[in-house]
Amino acid sequence: MKSKISIQNLNLSIGKNQILKNINLDIPENQVTIILGPSGCGKTTLLKCLNRLIDLEENVTITGSIFLDNEDILHTKSDLPGIRKKMGLLSQRPYPLPMNIYDNIAYGLRINGIHNKHIIRESVEHNLKQVNLWDEVQHRLKEPASRLSIGQQQRLCLARGLAVKPEIILADEPTSALDPLSSTAIEKKFVELKEEYTLVMVTHILRQARRIADYVVFMYLGEIVEHGTADEFFNHPKQEKTKAYLEGIFN
Amino acid sequence: MQISIALIVLVLSLIVFSIFYRGLPSLTWEMVSQTPKGGYYFGKEGGVLNAIIGSLYLAFGATILALVMGLPVAMLMNIHLRKFKKLVNGVRFLLDLLWGVPSIVYGAFGFSVMIFFGVKTSLLAGIITVSLFILPIMIRAIDEVVRNVPVGLLEASMSLGSNKSQTAFMVYVRQCSSAIVTAIMISFGRAIGDAASVLFTTGYTDSIPTSVMQPSATLPLSIFFQLSSPIQEVQNRAYASAAILTIIILIISVLSRVISNKYNKNKIS
Amino acid sequence: MRFLKNEKVLNVFLYLFLGIILAMPVLLIVGLLFKSESVLHANSLSDLLFSTEWKPFQGKFGFYSYIYSSVLVTMLALLISVPICLFAAIYLTQYAKSVYLKVIQPVIDILAGIPSIIFGVWGILVIVPLISHYVAPFFGIETAGYSILAGAVVLSVMIIPFILNILLEIFKSISKELPQASIALGATKWQTIKYVILRKAFPGIVSSVVFGMSRAFGETIAVLMVVGNVAQIPKSIFEPGYPLPALIANNYGEMLSIPNYDSALMFASLILLVIVLLFNLAARMLISRYETKI
Ligand SMILES: Nc1ncnc2c1ncn2[C@@H]1O[C@H](COP(=O)(O)OP(=O)(O)OP(=O)(O)O)[C@@H](O)[C@H]1O
Ligand SMILES: [Mg+2]
């Protein structure tokens, strides 16, 4: 198993609060890694470190390293947009860009210097098909994305992320705002996508984790309690806290 | 208590009514299509085209200048300087203070700067002075909306590989387009209606300026100067100008309502 | 939009614009100070502020009567508009259905957008004749109508939207939390308003008044048109006055040949600026204290 991201001795505080404590973790390439943990344990923060959106927050101090293909992205000289581009983000609720459906996908290409209309059109079609949205929207590409249903919007956001050809997809409870059908669609897509991408997903739904996880990380109060392959984690948990969490007698 | 409301509504109606009652009869085709003949203060013939055009030049110029400077600053405060909340709040405070500075102070200041550099009253001097005067309004009006854009949109845009400026001018500007239009409208209204800041800086002439270095008539001053004339026809020009200015302001006020509703279509909520 | 890609160049402009704005207040104060230096040299500060002697040809610039007029007009305007605004705000937020506010808000906004010159014309067309034909005769006074009172009435209408909008915000934010608790204790609506809401809103009300004050103090054209412009200490509100902004507007750039004249007028602008800044500062501090209190 090859690791795509390697987090080493990561510590993070916001103001005086230490949010992440000594995180060491290897995220395997071309697999679905699920991050579990009770609310407020730092899952979102960890994801934000990976694509360095944490830089947008106030009063943050970070130590440690995060290696992406041997480049330490916390201490790199290369530009941040370039790093962020490598990691698509799917957030808790969809944030389509305030433009029409077509431009939502074209935007990522344009800002990355692709202005050829044919290439853009093909990419729009290809990526919308990727997320099974093409049939639903192909005749209304010029409509504002905000008119789509929440489930459609979330798929659009996934397509938008895929269009800039990331290597990793970060998802923060991507199905929590969705109806069961849309959730299943996203789940299925994730499993397919791991052929090409490395996926990291935060979720609160244990059953969902069991369905799609290859690798599982369990966090508690800013620390990683346990991590391992899905089989190990769900069937032979080592830590008491993990067991308690899996049995649902937490909190 | 109801009386207080009635009073406010009544006063507004009274203002509009009295201006129109006195001004509309003078508002002939000649009035809006000709410049004053024989001097604006003594000549009985002609109209106020010089003031209409001058005011439009001035207000458009100042609004554009204020937008060009103000929009980037509003974005800068909320996107680039997001991490420095204290600094940004300090800037907001400063802008609010500047917003309270009377326009006459801007006018006097502008004039003394002009003397310092040996510049004569001109459209350009007026545009710059007025743009400084409306800049705080413009920025704060945009800022109030930009600061409430959900952070998720910022994160979404950044995670696609946009830099901050792309996020600001390609995403946020669209998200806030209705607010920006409203800010432009408010600023334009201020710019076209203010007299004290143009009094010393823009000057007054009978002709329509052909370059920004020439002085220019404006509607507020066209009212102010011509109203004090003893000649009835000249006074009529003042009242006609007042009616025109009121119409423009009312149109702006209605338009900004309509447009701000219309421009919302791409906005995410 | 491709130029956005190169952030380095762009940022230079962004920060330059920000710098210009940050420099503005400093520039205004320093610039005006610099220009008023010569009149400050030739006259003592107390003479400038508290003497009524205004003899430009002799180099005597006593601003007292102008300041007095400004203060008088401003206070009178507040006296008229603050009660109206208070009642309107209480009514709109506590008694009336919320559609009322939706209907009234455009009226307030339009009123706020009307240029001061238009208020001035309205003052000449309506208020001045009203005072000269009806109000003054009622008190047995003869006047042309151009008076402190006319200035104050016009001014009061101009600051109504300004004060009212602030009051509305404040009452809206308060009434969300408090009243239920108080009404549950059996207080009548008016008691609730009087003892709970008004008390809670007090700093906000004060700050709205101070805001209105600073607005009124700097207002130029509209007042100038109806206040009569006679430099004197008015004995009644039916007499004309001559506020500071009007002095500046009427004379600036006119008599540049008289030594120190323009410097004196710059000093007047400086007084105006400083007073307005102080008012604003005070009002903002009051309001911010109050917001954290909620
Ligand atoms: N900008 C911030 N300033 C201060 N504290 C923060 C900030 N962002 C997050 N925190 C704190 O960091 C901790 C971890 O937050 P985080 O959002 O990462 O939790 P989470 O595991 O994603 O929770 P959830 O499952 O509810 O989404 C929380 O205690 C939160 O209060
Ligand atoms: Mg989270």
Question: Could you list some keywords that capture this structure?
Answer:
heterotrimer, B: 269 residues, mainly alpha, globular, C: mainly alpha, two-stranded antiparallel ribbon, binds adenosine-5'-triphosphate, binds magnesium ion
Helix content of chain B: over 70%
Write out the CATH superfamily name of the largest domain in chain A: P-loop containing nucleotide triphosphate hydrolases
- The H-level CATH homologous superfamily of chain B, spelled out, is MetI-like
Q: What distance lies between the first and last C-alpha atoms of chain B, to the nearest angstrom?
A: 37 Å
Number of strands of chain A: 10
Most extensive interface, residues per chain? B-C, 77 and 80 residues
SS class of chain A: alpha/beta
- Model regions low in confidence, pLDDT < 50 over at least 5 residues of chain A: none
> Do you know the CATH topology of the largest domain in chain A?
Rossmann fold
Task: Explain the overall architecture.
The complex is a heterotrimer of chains A (251), B (269) and C (294). Chain A has 251 residues and is of the alpha/beta class. In chain A, 36% of the residues lie in helices and 27% in strands. In chain A, the strands form two sheets. Chain A has a six-stranded mixed β-sheet with strand order 6-7-8-3-9-10, sandwiched between helices. A four-stranded antiparallel β-sheet of chain A has the order 2-1-4-5, with helices on one face. The two termini of chain A are 34 Å apart. Chain B is mostly helical and 269 residues long. In chain B, 73% of the residues lie in helices and 0% in strands. Chain B contains twelve helices and no strands. Chain B is globular and about 65 Å long. The model of chain B has no long low-confidence stretch (mean pLDDT 91). In chain C, helix 4 packs antiparallel against helix 6 and helix 5 crosses helix 6. Chain C is globular. Chain C is an all-alpha fold. Chain C folds into two domains: 34 residues; 247 residues, MetI-like fold, CATH 1.10.3720. Classes of the chains: A alpha/beta (251), B mainly alpha (269), C mainly alpha (294). Chains B and C meet through helix 1, helix 3, helix 4, helix 5 and helix 6 of B and helix 1, helix 3, helix 4, helix 5 and helix 6 of C. Bound molecules: adenosine-5'-triphosphate (ATP) and magnesium ion.
